[in-house]
Design brief:
elongated
Length: 103
């Protein structure tokens, strides 16, 4: 919603204008509610139920993999930040000692 509100209205697509208008009116009818194609086939219980379940399962596996990758990246970034902070603190301490010695 932030994206739509910050975007110039003249740049909105028809769908974006519709959604933003509904949002500003406090309506939620534009939100999908169990209307994803893979969920509809699961609810209907037709012959493609197995393939629908398989699609959901494959998507969950992919999301789990991607979340693991994001977690690893965040952990690496955290370690880099910690090292940078430690190096900055050491440099600050060195400069503080040099300045005291020169006084």
């Amino acid at each position: 919603m932030v994206h739509l509100e910050s975007k110039d209205r003249s740049d909105h697509t028809g769908v974006e204008s519709y959604i933003l208008d509904k949002y500003k009116q406090g309506e939620q009818s534009w939100l999908p509610r169990q209307k994803a194609l893979c969920l509809e086939t699961l609810v209907e219980g037709d012959e493609s139920e197995t393939s629908g379940n398989e699609i959901v399962k494959q998507n969950m596996i992919l999301w789990k993999k991607h979340l693991g990758e994001v977690d690893a990246c965040l952990e690496e970034l955290l370690q880099m930040i910690k090292k940078s902070l430690e190096a900055a603190k050491e440099e600050e301490e060195k400069l503080g000692l040099k300045n005291r010695g020169n006084s």
